[in-house]
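Hi R.,

Here's the chain you asked about this morning:
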Amino acid sequence: MALKNTLIIGALLVSFVAPGVTEGQVNKPSPRFRYKKLESAENTRPYATPGVFDYDAQVFAPLEFTDGKEKKPNDGFYFSLDKAYTSVSKATRIGEASDTIQTGSTYIQGSRYDFGWFSDNDDGWGFTYQVSDGIYYTAGQDSSVANPMIVDMNVSTFEINRMFRQALSEGGYFEPYMGVRYMHIGDNTIEDTNQTVGTDATVNRFKQNVTNDGFGFQAGGKYNSRRGRWRTTIDGSIATVYNQQRYFATDITNSSTGPQGISETYQSDQSFVPILDGQYEIAYNISRDISIRLGVQAIYSWAGIARANTETTNLNPNSIFGAGGAPTGFFDDSHLSAGFLYGIEWRR
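And the predicted structure, written out as tokens:
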């Protein structure tokens, strides 16, 4: 009986003492031992700036205004996702005797990701990645062409920018930035045609792969103006990238009586490409942290872009079945991408 009473009394003491110990550990920063040295409690606090990581996660909290007209820009992290519907320049057709035919433009779709953060000192870092691709047909408008040329096009950019923010006396904010930019433009073409090699009827697949990969520097700025739940943004930048151009073409022939034949052509070159990038958007805050966006964008490179030759196989000098002339390889061209953006953003 004495042992039982002793155990009951000990359990009661532990139950009273434990909450006090736990409370001291949770609510107060405590020192720690390191290398047999006692550190002060001040040195054990978080390293991150409170303005960056103190987000309360109430994404649908009501929108609040600082002076009844403008909402103060957010500090900390931001992220936006846009879908892009873009008109892009088609690759040019160059046939016999270097006859050049412009083929207009086509629409492709893609996505744009924009994320980064601003500190409470009105500076920060921004990252932007945009990619669009699509397929179109060329040299196939005539009904006599059984297998038209298929062109798969890809356009993408990636940016890293150091950003700054300045409030303007007339209202709104100006955000100059500078950084680095990567650009990629690529064409892949496939066309199947019936050819005659000697006395054999063969099927030939003519393929081209042309890529542009440029890396360089850019500078620009954004103007943001807020009125109530609405925000308008004008963004413009200029960049110069060092572009590595690569061109590859091949003919693959198959016949029922002979072996498969492969003929390949490869060329490369370099160029400096100037780029102008402009964007206008309107955003509407549906809550404190969530907004929907709509905008337009245009990116123009006026020289130094290599494109595929989309002339049909029998007239394309880059094919062994092309009519006359030396292979043209790739050529320098301009490029324009212009279209619409729509999406959603968090805490911009």
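The longest helix spans residues 2-27.

Let me know if you need anything else.
M.
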